Request: fold
Amino acid sequence: MRMSKLLLKTLREPPADAELPSHRLLLRAGLVMPLAAGLYCFTPLGWRTVRRIEAIIREEMDRSGAQEIHLPALHPIELWEQSGRAEAMGQTLFRLADRKERGFALGPTHEEAVSFLASRSIQSYRDLPVTLYQIQTKFRDEARPRGGLIRLREFIMKDAYSFDAGWEALDESYQLAFEAYVRIFARAGVPVIPVAADSGAIGGKDSQEFVFLSEMGEDEVLLCPGCGYAANAEKAEFQPPPPLPGDAAPLEKVATPGQKTIAGLAAFLGVERRQTCKAVFYRVDGRPVFVAIRGDLDVNETKLKNLLKAREIEPLDDVAARAVGLVPGSAGPVGLTGLEIVADASVTGAPNLVAGANEDGQHYRNVNHGRDWSAGAIADLALARAGDACLNCGAALETRRGIEMGHVFKLGTVYAESMGVSYLDEKGERQPVVMGCYGIGLERMLAAAIEANHDENGITWPPEVAPYDVHIVALNLDQAPVAEALAALEAALAEAGLSALIDDRDDSAGIKFKDADLLGMPVRITVSPRALEKGGVEFRARRTGETRIVALRELAGEVVAALRGARV
Reply:
Protein backbone atom coordinates (compact mmCIF):
# COMPACT_ATOMS: atom_id res chain seq x y z
CA MET A 1 0.00 0.00 0.00
CA ARG A 2 1.34 3.41 -1.00
CA MET A 3 0.84 6.12 1.58
CA SER A 4 0.08 8.65 -1.14
CA LYS A 5 -3.16 6.69 -1.69
CA LEU A 6 -3.84 5.69 1.93
CA LEU A 7 -6.63 7.31 3.93
CA LEU A 8 -4.49 8.42 6.86
CA LYS A 9 -4.04 11.52 8.96
CA THR A 10 -1.42 11.46 11.70
CA LEU A 11 -1.29 14.02 14.49
CA ARG A 12 1.74 15.59 16.11
CA GLU A 13 -0.15 16.07 19.40
CA PRO A 14 -3.08 14.02 20.76
CA PRO A 15 -6.34 15.60 21.97
CA ALA A 16 -6.15 16.84 25.56
CA ASP A 17 -8.85 14.41 26.80
CA ALA A 18 -6.88 11.30 25.74
CA GLU A 19 -5.44 9.92 29.00
CA LEU A 20 -4.21 6.41 28.25
CA PRO A 21 -1.04 6.00 26.15
CA SER A 22 -2.98 3.67 23.84
CA HIS A 23 -5.74 6.26 23.36
CA ARG A 24 -3.22 8.97 22.55
CA LEU A 25 -1.33 6.79 20.08
CA LEU A 26 -4.47 5.44 18.41
CA LEU A 27 -5.48 9.01 17.63
CA ARG A 28 -2.00 10.28 16.77
CA ALA A 29 -1.35 7.35 14.43
CA GLY A 30 -4.72 7.87 12.77
CA LEU A 31 -5.93 4.33 13.50
CA VAL A 32 -9.33 5.44 14.79
CA MET A 33 -11.52 8.51 14.82
CA PRO A 34 -14.17 9.23 17.49
CA LEU A 35 -17.75 9.52 16.26
CA ALA A 36 -19.45 9.94 19.66
CA ALA A 37 -18.82 8.89 23.26
CA GLY A 38 -17.96 5.19 23.15
CA LEU A 39 -18.18 5.00 19.34
CA TYR A 40 -15.15 4.93 17.03
CA CYS A 41 -14.56 4.76 13.29
CA PHE A 42 -11.64 2.55 12.22
CA THR A 43 -9.44 3.80 9.43
CA PRO A 44 -7.89 1.35 6.92
CA LEU A 45 -4.70 1.05 9.00
CA GLY A 46 -6.60 0.47 12.25
CA TRP A 47 -8.93 -2.04 10.65
CA ARG A 48 -6.03 -4.08 9.28
CA THR A 49 -4.83 -4.53 12.86
CA VAL A 50 -8.28 -5.64 13.99
CA ARG A 51 -8.36 -8.17 11.17
CA ARG A 52 -4.96 -9.55 12.18
CA ILE A 53 -6.18 -9.93 15.77
CA GLU A 54 -9.24 -11.75 14.41
CA ALA A 55 -6.97 -14.09 12.46
CA ILE A 56 -5.02 -15.03 15.59
CA ILE A 57 -8.24 -15.67 17.49
CA ARG A 58 -9.73 -17.78 14.69
CA GLU A 59 -6.58 -19.89 14.37
CA GLU A 60 -6.41 -20.62 18.08
CA MET A 61 -10.14 -21.22 18.54
CA ASP A 62 -10.17 -23.58 15.56
CA ARG A 63 -7.09 -25.30 17.00
CA SER A 64 -8.98 -25.84 20.27
CA GLY A 65 -11.78 -27.63 18.39
CA ALA A 66 -14.32 -24.80 18.47
CA GLN A 67 -16.58 -24.19 15.46
CA GLU A 68 -17.32 -20.71 14.13
CA ILE A 69 -20.91 -19.51 13.74
CA HIS A 70 -22.60 -16.15 13.25
CA LEU A 71 -25.56 -14.97 15.33
CA PRO A 72 -27.76 -11.87 14.85
CA ALA A 73 -26.90 -8.71 16.74
CA LEU A 74 -30.64 -7.90 16.91
CA HIS A 75 -32.59 -10.12 19.32
CA PRO A 76 -36.30 -10.51 20.02
CA ILE A 77 -36.81 -9.17 23.55
CA GLU A 78 -38.71 -12.38 24.37
CA LEU A 79 -35.39 -14.25 24.43
CA TRP A 80 -34.11 -11.94 27.15
CA GLU A 81 -37.36 -12.18 29.08
CA GLN A 82 -37.17 -15.97 28.89
CA SER A 83 -33.72 -15.99 30.49
CA GLY A 84 -34.73 -13.36 33.08
CA ARG A 85 -32.05 -10.92 31.97
CA ALA A 86 -34.28 -8.30 30.33
CA GLU A 87 -34.67 -6.82 33.79
CA ALA A 88 -31.28 -7.84 35.17
CA MET A 89 -29.36 -5.94 32.47
CA GLY A 90 -31.24 -2.76 33.37
CA GLN A 91 -30.32 0.34 31.39
CA THR A 92 -27.26 -1.35 29.87
CA LEU A 93 -29.55 -3.13 27.39
CA PHE A 94 -30.33 -1.15 24.24
CA ARG A 95 -34.03 -1.64 23.47
CA LEU A 96 -36.00 -0.79 20.35
CA ALA A 97 -39.20 -1.70 18.55
CA ASP A 98 -39.85 -2.55 14.91
CA ARG A 99 -42.63 -1.04 12.76
CA LYS A 100 -45.08 -3.53 14.24
CA GLU A 101 -44.11 -2.45 17.77
CA ARG A 102 -42.50 -5.79 18.50
CA GLY A 103 -39.74 -5.43 21.09
CA PHE A 104 -36.10 -6.09 20.29
CA ALA A 105 -32.72 -5.66 21.96
CA LEU A 106 -29.26 -5.07 20.56
CA GLY A 107 -27.20 -7.94 21.93
CA PRO A 108 -24.72 -6.99 24.68
CA THR A 109 -23.80 -10.69 24.74
CA HIS A 110 -25.20 -13.83 23.09
CA GLU A 111 -26.00 -16.50 25.70
CA GLU A 112 -29.69 -16.32 24.84
CA ALA A 113 -29.23 -16.47 21.07
CA VAL A 114 -26.71 -19.32 21.12
CA SER A 115 -28.92 -21.23 23.56
CA PHE A 116 -31.80 -20.86 21.10
CA LEU A 117 -29.60 -22.29 18.33
CA ALA A 118 -28.36 -25.13 20.55
CA SER A 119 -31.85 -26.03 21.79
CA ARG A 120 -32.83 -26.84 18.20
CA SER A 121 -29.58 -28.52 17.20
CA ILE A 122 -28.54 -30.63 20.21
CA GLN A 123 -30.76 -33.64 20.76
CA SER A 124 -28.61 -36.49 22.04
CA TYR A 125 -25.48 -37.11 24.09
CA ARG A 126 -23.93 -38.05 20.74
CA ASP A 127 -24.13 -34.35 19.78
CA LEU A 128 -21.88 -33.43 22.71
CA PRO A 129 -19.42 -31.96 23.46
CA VAL A 130 -19.51 -28.98 21.12
CA THR A 131 -18.03 -25.47 21.39
CA LEU A 132 -19.32 -22.68 19.17
CA TYR A 133 -17.76 -19.27 18.70
CA GLN A 134 -18.35 -16.08 16.77
CA ILE A 135 -16.75 -12.67 16.24
CA GLN A 136 -19.65 -10.24 16.44
CA THR A 137 -20.57 -6.65 17.27
CA LYS A 138 -22.04 -6.05 20.75
CA PHE A 139 -23.93 -3.08 22.14
CA ARG A 140 -24.03 -1.85 25.74
CA ASP A 141 -25.39 1.48 26.92
CA GLU A 142 -22.40 2.22 29.13
CA ALA A 143 -22.95 5.09 31.55
CA ARG A 144 -19.31 6.22 31.28
CA PRO A 145 -17.45 5.15 28.14
CA ARG A 146 -13.74 5.73 28.75
CA GLY A 147 -10.14 5.07 27.81
CA GLY A 148 -10.51 5.21 24.06
CA LEU A 149 -11.19 1.59 23.08
CA ILE A 150 -11.25 0.24 26.64
CA ARG A 151 -14.94 0.82 27.41
CA LEU A 152 -17.24 1.27 24.43
CA ARG A 153 -20.94 1.30 23.66
CA GLU A 154 -20.43 -0.61 20.40
CA PHE A 155 -17.59 -3.12 20.29
CA ILE A 156 -16.42 -6.36 18.70
CA MET A 157 -16.16 -9.49 20.80
CA LYS A 158 -15.14 -13.04 20.24
CA ASP A 159 -17.57 -15.04 22.33
CA ALA A 160 -17.56 -18.81 22.57
CA TYR A 161 -19.99 -21.20 24.24
CA SER A 162 -19.36 -24.82 25.16
CA PHE A 163 -22.07 -27.45 25.61
CA ASP A 164 -21.28 -30.59 27.61
CA ALA A 165 -22.95 -33.60 29.19
CA GLY A 166 -21.89 -32.91 32.78
CA TRP A 167 -19.55 -30.85 34.92
CA GLU A 168 -16.48 -33.06 34.40
CA ALA A 169 -16.86 -32.70 30.64
CA LEU A 170 -17.24 -28.93 31.09
CA ASP A 171 -13.94 -28.88 32.97
CA GLU A 172 -12.24 -30.25 29.85
CA SER A 173 -13.90 -27.73 27.51
CA TYR A 174 -13.08 -24.91 29.92
CA GLN A 175 -9.42 -25.94 30.02
CA LEU A 176 -9.21 -26.06 26.22
CA ALA A 177 -10.60 -22.52 26.02
CA PHE A 178 -8.27 -21.34 28.79
CA GLU A 179 -5.22 -22.70 26.97
CA ALA A 180 -6.38 -21.12 23.71
CA TYR A 181 -6.61 -17.76 25.48
CA VAL A 182 -3.06 -18.10 26.80
CA ARG A 183 -1.82 -18.63 23.24
CA ILE A 184 -3.94 -15.79 21.81
CA PHE A 185 -2.64 -13.17 24.21
CA ALA A 186 0.96 -14.36 23.86
CA ARG A 187 0.82 -14.11 20.07
CA ALA A 188 -0.77 -10.66 20.24
CA GLY A 189 1.98 -9.38 22.51
CA VAL A 190 -0.42 -8.66 25.39
CA PRO A 191 0.97 -9.82 28.78
CA VAL A 192 -1.91 -10.99 30.96
CA ILE A 193 -2.43 -12.82 34.22
CA PRO A 194 -5.46 -15.03 34.97
CA VAL A 195 -7.33 -13.99 38.12
CA ALA A 196 -10.37 -15.36 39.93
CA ALA A 197 -13.34 -13.16 39.07
CA ASP A 198 -17.00 -12.52 39.74
CA SER A 199 -19.40 -13.80 37.09
CA GLY A 200 -21.51 -10.64 37.15
CA ALA A 201 -24.63 -10.44 34.99
CA ILE A 202 -23.51 -13.48 32.94
CA GLY A 203 -24.17 -15.76 35.90
CA GLY A 204 -22.67 -19.17 36.53
CA LYS A 205 -20.11 -20.82 38.79
CA ASP A 206 -16.32 -20.56 38.39
CA SER A 207 -14.96 -17.59 36.51
CA GLN A 208 -11.53 -16.21 35.59
CA GLU A 209 -10.44 -12.96 33.98
CA PHE A 210 -7.32 -12.43 31.91
CA VAL A 211 -6.04 -9.07 33.15
CA PHE A 212 -3.48 -6.75 31.61
CA LEU A 213 -1.82 -4.92 34.51
CA SER A 214 -1.85 -1.16 34.04
CA GLU A 215 -1.91 1.77 36.46
CA MET A 216 -4.65 3.25 34.25
CA GLY A 217 -6.82 0.14 34.56
CA GLU A 218 -10.35 0.33 35.90
CA ASP A 219 -10.19 -2.98 37.80
CA GLU A 220 -8.38 -3.65 41.07
CA VAL A 221 -6.55 -6.96 41.39
CA LEU A 222 -5.29 -8.60 44.61
CA LEU A 223 -2.05 -10.55 44.17
CA CYS A 224 -0.22 -12.78 46.65
CA PRO A 225 3.59 -12.67 46.35
CA GLY A 226 3.80 -15.84 48.42
CA CYS A 227 1.70 -18.43 46.60
CA GLY A 228 0.63 -16.63 43.41
CA TYR A 229 -3.05 -16.30 44.33
CA ALA A 230 -4.70 -13.66 42.14
CA ALA A 231 -8.27 -12.38 42.16
CA ASN A 232 -10.30 -9.41 41.11
CA ALA A 233 -11.18 -7.20 44.09
CA GLU A 234 -14.84 -8.08 43.55
CA LYS A 235 -14.04 -11.76 44.13
CA ALA A 236 -10.93 -11.80 46.33
CA GLU A 237 -10.98 -13.71 49.60
CA PHE A 238 -8.63 -13.21 52.53
CA GLN A 239 -8.02 -14.03 56.19
CA PRO A 240 -9.34 -11.19 58.36
CA PRO A 241 -7.58 -10.62 61.68
CA PRO A 242 -9.11 -12.99 64.25
CA PRO A 243 -11.62 -11.57 66.74
CA LEU A 244 -10.57 -11.03 70.33
CA PRO A 245 -11.70 -14.08 72.31
CA GLY A 246 -13.93 -13.92 75.36
CA ASP A 247 -17.11 -15.15 76.98
CA ALA A 248 -20.30 -13.26 76.29
CA ALA A 249 -20.67 -10.37 78.76
CA PRO A 250 -23.90 -8.59 79.76
CA LEU A 251 -25.27 -6.05 77.29
CA GLU A 252 -24.51 -2.50 78.44
CA LYS A 253 -25.65 0.84 77.00
CA VAL A 254 -23.05 3.65 77.07
CA ALA A 255 -23.16 7.31 76.12
CA THR A 256 -20.98 8.20 73.11
CA PRO A 257 -21.64 11.89 72.44
CA GLY A 258 -20.43 13.14 69.07
CA GLN A 259 -18.97 9.79 67.96
CA LYS A 260 -20.14 9.24 64.38
CA THR A 261 -17.28 7.16 62.95
CA ILE A 262 -15.77 3.78 63.77
CA ALA A 263 -12.33 5.31 64.31
CA GLY A 264 -13.68 7.96 66.66
CA LEU A 265 -15.88 5.48 68.54
CA ALA A 266 -13.01 3.00 69.04
CA ALA A 267 -10.72 5.74 70.36
CA PHE A 268 -13.45 7.14 72.66
CA LEU A 269 -14.15 3.74 74.25
CA GLY A 270 -10.56 2.50 74.19
CA VAL A 271 -11.22 -0.55 72.04
CA GLU A 272 -9.82 -1.84 68.76
CA ARG A 273 -11.77 -1.32 65.54
CA ARG A 274 -12.21 -5.09 65.24
CA GLN A 275 -14.19 -4.93 68.51
CA THR A 276 -16.88 -2.79 66.86
CA CYS A 277 -19.83 -3.55 64.60
CA LYS A 278 -20.10 -1.23 61.62
CA ALA A 279 -23.57 -0.42 60.24
CA VAL A 280 -23.81 0.15 56.48
CA PHE A 281 -27.08 1.00 54.73
CA TYR A 282 -28.11 0.21 51.16
CA ARG A 283 -31.08 0.45 48.87
CA VAL A 284 -31.28 -2.91 47.13
CA ASP A 285 -33.74 -3.09 44.23
CA GLY A 286 -35.70 -0.33 45.94
CA ARG A 287 -35.78 -1.78 49.46
CA PRO A 288 -33.60 -0.69 52.41
CA VAL A 289 -31.08 -3.24 53.72
CA PHE A 290 -28.98 -3.02 56.90
CA VAL A 291 -25.52 -4.62 56.63
CA ALA A 292 -23.51 -5.42 59.75
CA ILE A 293 -19.75 -5.93 59.40
CA ARG A 294 -16.80 -5.74 61.76
CA GLY A 295 -15.46 -2.21 62.15
CA ASP A 296 -12.03 -2.96 60.72
CA LEU A 297 -13.51 -4.27 57.46
CA ASP A 298 -15.38 -2.79 54.49
CA VAL A 299 -18.36 -4.14 52.55
CA ASN A 300 -17.73 -5.71 49.15
CA GLU A 301 -20.81 -4.52 47.28
CA THR A 302 -20.44 -7.13 44.56
CA LYS A 303 -20.55 -9.93 47.13
CA LEU A 304 -23.59 -8.30 48.73
CA LYS A 305 -25.31 -7.96 45.37
CA ASN A 306 -24.66 -11.63 44.58
CA LEU A 307 -25.90 -12.76 48.01
CA LEU A 308 -29.18 -10.89 47.59
CA LYS A 309 -29.45 -11.73 43.85
CA ALA A 310 -29.99 -8.00 43.29
CA ARG A 311 -30.13 -6.05 40.05
CA GLU A 312 -29.27 -2.64 41.54
CA ILE A 313 -27.59 -1.63 44.77
CA GLU A 314 -26.69 1.84 46.05
CA PRO A 315 -25.68 3.29 49.45
CA LEU A 316 -28.33 5.17 51.45
CA ASP A 317 -27.35 8.70 52.41
CA ASP A 318 -28.11 10.02 55.90
CA VAL A 319 -31.40 11.63 54.87
CA ALA A 320 -32.69 8.45 53.24
CA ALA A 321 -31.46 6.37 56.19
CA ARG A 322 -33.34 8.49 58.72
CA ALA A 323 -36.46 8.27 56.54
CA VAL A 324 -36.56 4.49 57.12
CA GLY A 325 -35.89 4.76 60.86
CA LEU A 326 -32.10 4.39 60.95
CA VAL A 327 -29.85 6.59 63.08
CA PRO A 328 -26.63 7.37 61.17
CA GLY A 329 -23.63 7.30 63.50
CA SER A 330 -25.48 5.30 66.17
CA ALA A 331 -27.23 2.57 64.17
CA GLY A 332 -27.01 -1.03 65.24
CA PRO A 333 -28.77 -4.37 64.81
CA VAL A 334 -30.01 -4.75 68.41
CA GLY A 335 -33.75 -4.17 68.55
CA LEU A 336 -33.90 -3.13 64.91
CA THR A 337 -37.20 -4.02 63.26
CA GLY A 338 -38.84 -3.47 59.89
CA LEU A 339 -35.59 -3.84 57.92
CA GLU A 340 -33.78 -6.72 56.27
CA ILE A 341 -30.55 -7.41 58.21
CA VAL A 342 -27.57 -9.01 56.50
CA ALA A 343 -24.31 -9.81 58.29
CA ASP A 344 -20.74 -10.47 57.32
CA ALA A 345 -19.40 -13.62 58.96
CA SER A 346 -16.88 -11.49 60.86
CA VAL A 347 -19.53 -10.12 63.25
CA THR A 348 -21.39 -13.35 63.87
CA GLY A 349 -18.26 -15.03 65.19
CA ALA A 350 -16.92 -12.12 67.27
CA PRO A 351 -18.00 -11.76 70.92
CA ASN A 352 -18.73 -8.58 72.85
CA LEU A 353 -18.74 -6.02 70.06
CA VAL A 354 -19.62 -2.34 70.33
CA ALA A 355 -22.65 -1.47 68.21
CA GLY A 356 -25.06 1.42 67.82
CA ALA A 357 -28.10 1.57 70.13
CA ASN A 358 -30.29 3.27 67.48
CA GLU A 359 -30.31 6.45 69.56
CA ASP A 360 -28.22 9.54 68.82
CA GLY A 361 -25.05 9.47 70.94
CA GLN A 362 -25.74 6.00 72.37
CA HIS A 363 -24.04 2.64 71.78
CA TYR A 364 -24.12 -0.85 73.29
CA ARG A 365 -21.12 -2.73 74.64
CA ASN A 366 -20.96 -6.53 74.59
CA VAL A 367 -23.25 -7.11 71.61
CA ASN A 368 -23.38 -10.80 70.63
CA HIS A 369 -25.01 -12.27 67.55
CA GLY A 370 -27.55 -14.98 68.35
CA ARG A 371 -28.24 -13.58 71.80
CA ASP A 372 -28.90 -9.89 71.18
CA TRP A 373 -29.78 -9.93 67.50
CA SER A 374 -30.02 -12.22 64.48
CA ALA A 375 -29.23 -11.72 60.81
CA GLY A 376 -31.51 -12.89 58.03
CA ALA A 377 -28.49 -13.87 55.93
CA ILE A 378 -24.82 -14.42 56.77
CA ALA A 379 -21.99 -14.58 54.23
CA ASP A 380 -18.47 -13.43 53.41
CA LEU A 381 -19.18 -9.82 52.48
CA ALA A 382 -15.78 -8.27 53.24
CA LEU A 383 -13.68 -6.38 50.71
CA ALA A 384 -10.06 -7.52 50.40
CA ARG A 385 -7.45 -4.75 50.63
CA ALA A 386 -3.71 -4.40 50.31
CA GLY A 387 -1.99 -5.87 53.36
CA ASP A 388 -4.73 -8.38 54.15
CA ALA A 389 -3.58 -11.96 54.71
CA CYS A 390 -3.80 -14.38 51.78
CA LEU A 391 -6.41 -17.07 52.41
CA ASN A 392 -4.02 -19.76 51.14
CA CYS A 393 -0.64 -18.92 52.65
CA GLY A 394 -1.09 -15.93 54.94
CA ALA A 395 1.26 -13.59 53.04
CA ALA A 396 0.24 -9.93 52.73
CA LEU A 397 -1.80 -9.31 49.58
CA GLU A 398 -0.74 -6.60 47.15
CA THR A 399 -3.03 -4.52 44.92
CA ARG A 400 -2.53 -3.61 41.28
CA ARG A 401 -4.71 -1.91 38.70
CA GLY A 402 -5.60 -3.79 35.53
CA ILE A 403 -7.73 -3.96 32.40
CA GLU A 404 -9.88 -7.01 31.71
CA MET A 405 -8.91 -8.53 28.36
CA GLY A 406 -10.88 -11.75 28.41
CA HIS A 407 -13.23 -13.67 30.67
CA VAL A 408 -14.04 -17.39 30.96
CA PHE A 409 -17.07 -18.72 32.87
CA LYS A 410 -18.49 -22.06 33.92
CA LEU A 411 -22.14 -21.21 33.36
CA GLY A 412 -23.51 -24.61 34.34
CA THR A 413 -27.20 -25.18 33.60
CA VAL A 414 -28.61 -21.70 34.31
CA TYR A 415 -29.25 -20.93 30.62
CA ALA A 416 -29.89 -24.53 29.62
CA GLU A 417 -32.79 -24.67 32.07
CA SER A 418 -34.27 -21.27 31.25
CA MET A 419 -33.81 -21.61 27.48
CA GLY A 420 -34.62 -25.31 27.15
CA VAL A 421 -31.25 -26.69 26.02
CA SER A 422 -31.27 -30.42 26.82
CA TYR A 423 -30.23 -33.81 25.48
CA LEU A 424 -31.17 -37.46 25.83
CA ASP A 425 -28.54 -39.40 27.78
CA GLU A 426 -27.50 -43.03 27.25
CA LYS A 427 -30.54 -44.17 29.25
CA GLY A 428 -32.92 -42.13 27.13
CA GLU A 429 -33.52 -39.62 29.93
CA ARG A 430 -33.57 -35.89 29.20
CA GLN A 431 -30.84 -33.83 30.88
CA PRO A 432 -29.90 -30.14 30.75
CA VAL A 433 -26.60 -29.42 29.01
CA VAL A 434 -23.81 -27.87 31.08
CA MET A 435 -22.51 -24.69 29.47
CA GLY A 436 -19.37 -22.58 29.49
CA CYS A 437 -18.83 -19.08 28.14
CA TYR A 438 -15.60 -17.46 26.91
CA GLY A 439 -15.19 -13.85 25.74
CA ILE A 440 -12.43 -11.59 24.38
CA GLY A 441 -12.85 -7.93 23.45
CA LEU A 442 -11.00 -7.20 20.20
CA GLU A 443 -10.75 -3.42 20.61
CA ARG A 444 -9.41 -3.92 24.11
CA MET A 445 -6.78 -6.29 22.74
CA LEU A 446 -5.78 -3.66 20.20
CA ALA A 447 -5.52 -1.00 22.92
CA ALA A 448 -3.58 -3.32 25.25
CA ALA A 449 -1.18 -4.31 22.48
CA ILE A 450 -0.31 -0.61 22.17
CA GLU A 451 -0.21 -0.10 25.96
CA ALA A 452 2.33 -2.93 26.23
CA ASN A 453 4.29 -2.04 23.10
CA HIS A 454 5.20 1.62 22.68
CA ASP A 455 7.99 4.06 23.40
CA GLU A 456 8.41 7.84 23.39
CA ASN A 457 8.32 7.92 19.57
CA GLY A 458 5.22 5.83 18.94
CA ILE A 459 3.93 2.28 18.64
CA THR A 460 6.24 -0.76 18.55
CA TRP A 461 3.87 -3.38 17.14
CA PRO A 462 4.34 -7.07 17.90
CA PRO A 463 4.89 -8.75 14.51
CA GLU A 464 1.64 -10.75 14.46
CA VAL A 465 -0.69 -7.78 14.95
CA ALA A 466 1.16 -5.04 13.06
CA PRO A 467 -0.90 -3.57 10.20
CA TYR A 468 2.03 -4.23 7.84
CA ASP A 469 5.21 -6.25 8.24
CA VAL A 470 7.45 -3.61 6.70
CA HIS A 471 7.40 0.17 6.42
CA ILE A 472 9.37 1.31 3.36
CA VAL A 473 10.59 4.89 3.30
CA ALA A 474 11.49 5.95 -0.23
CA LEU A 475 13.73 9.03 -0.50
CA ASN A 476 14.41 10.82 -3.79
CA LEU A 477 11.93 8.59 -5.59
CA ASP A 478 12.31 10.76 -8.68
CA GLN A 479 15.79 9.25 -9.20
CA ALA A 480 15.81 6.15 -11.39
CA PRO A 481 18.04 3.95 -9.15
CA VAL A 482 15.71 4.53 -6.19
CA ALA A 483 12.57 3.79 -8.23
CA GLU A 484 14.12 0.63 -9.65
CA ALA A 485 15.29 -0.57 -6.24
CA LEU A 486 11.83 0.07 -4.78
CA ALA A 487 10.16 -1.97 -7.55
CA ALA A 488 12.59 -4.84 -6.98
CA LEU A 489 12.03 -4.65 -3.24
CA GLU A 490 8.23 -4.73 -3.60
CA ALA A 491 8.44 -7.82 -5.78
CA ALA A 492 10.81 -9.63 -3.40
CA LEU A 493 8.65 -8.90 -0.33
CA ALA A 494 5.46 -9.96 -2.12
CA GLU A 495 7.08 -13.23 -3.21
CA ALA A 496 8.05 -13.87 0.44
CA GLY A 497 4.46 -13.26 1.53
CA LEU A 498 5.28 -10.03 3.38
CA SER A 499 3.06 -6.96 3.45
CA ALA A 500 4.53 -3.49 3.02
CA LEU A 501 3.45 0.08 3.64
CA ILE A 502 5.36 2.34 1.26
CA ASP A 503 5.91 6.00 2.06
CA ASP A 504 6.07 7.52 -1.42
CA ARG A 505 4.80 10.93 -0.31
CA ASP A 506 6.47 14.14 -1.41
CA ASP A 507 7.55 15.01 2.13
CA SER A 508 10.87 15.54 3.90
CA ALA A 509 12.88 12.62 5.24
CA GLY A 510 12.31 13.90 8.79
CA ILE A 511 8.52 13.78 8.46
CA LYS A 512 8.65 10.33 6.91
CA PHE A 513 10.89 8.91 9.63
CA LYS A 514 8.75 10.43 12.40
CA ASP A 515 5.61 8.89 10.92
CA ALA A 516 7.38 5.55 10.54
CA ASP A 517 8.29 5.57 14.22
CA LEU A 518 4.77 6.66 15.17
CA LEU A 519 3.05 3.97 13.08
CA GLY A 520 5.47 1.38 14.46
CA MET A 521 5.75 -1.39 11.85
CA PRO A 522 8.28 -4.00 13.03
CA VAL A 523 10.80 -3.28 10.28
CA ARG A 524 11.61 -0.02 8.50
CA ILE A 525 13.42 -0.15 5.16
CA THR A 526 14.88 3.05 3.75
CA VAL A 527 15.51 3.16 0.02
CA SER A 528 17.78 6.12 -0.71
CA PRO A 529 20.68 7.10 -2.98
CA ARG A 530 23.06 7.00 0.02
CA ALA A 531 22.04 3.46 1.05
CA LEU A 532 22.24 2.22 -2.53
CA GLU A 533 25.76 3.61 -2.81
CA LYS A 534 26.66 1.50 0.24
CA GLY A 535 25.42 -1.65 -1.48
CA GLY A 536 21.77 -2.05 -0.54
CA VAL A 537 18.98 -0.54 1.56
CA GLU A 538 18.86 0.46 5.20
CA PHE A 539 17.25 -2.13 7.49
CA ARG A 540 16.05 -0.83 10.87
CA ALA A 541 14.31 -2.86 13.60
CA ARG A 542 11.67 -0.63 15.16
CA ARG A 543 11.84 -2.03 18.67
CA THR A 544 15.60 -2.35 19.12
CA GLY A 545 16.71 0.44 16.81
CA GLU A 546 19.28 -1.88 15.20
CA THR A 547 20.28 -0.43 11.80
CA ARG A 548 22.39 -1.94 9.03
CA ILE A 549 22.77 -2.00 5.26
CA VAL A 550 21.34 -5.13 3.63
CA ALA A 551 21.71 -6.16 -0.02
CA LEU A 552 18.45 -6.20 -1.95
CA ARG A 553 18.74 -9.91 -2.75
CA GLU A 554 19.06 -10.75 0.96
CA LEU A 555 16.46 -8.39 2.35
CA ALA A 556 13.32 -10.56 2.24
CA GLY A 557 15.11 -13.36 4.09
CA GLU A 558 16.41 -10.91 6.69
CA VAL A 559 12.92 -9.53 7.29
CA VAL A 560 11.40 -13.01 7.64
CA ALA A 561 14.12 -14.06 10.09
CA ALA A 562 13.66 -10.90 12.13
CA LEU A 563 9.88 -11.27 12.32
CA ARG A 564 10.00 -14.94 13.25
CA GLY A 565 12.64 -14.35 15.88
CA ALA A 566 10.83 -11.24 17.15
CA ARG A 567 14.17 -9.40 16.74
CA VAL A 568 12.32 -6.23 15.80
Summary: Residues 344 and 381 are 5 Å apart (CA to CA).
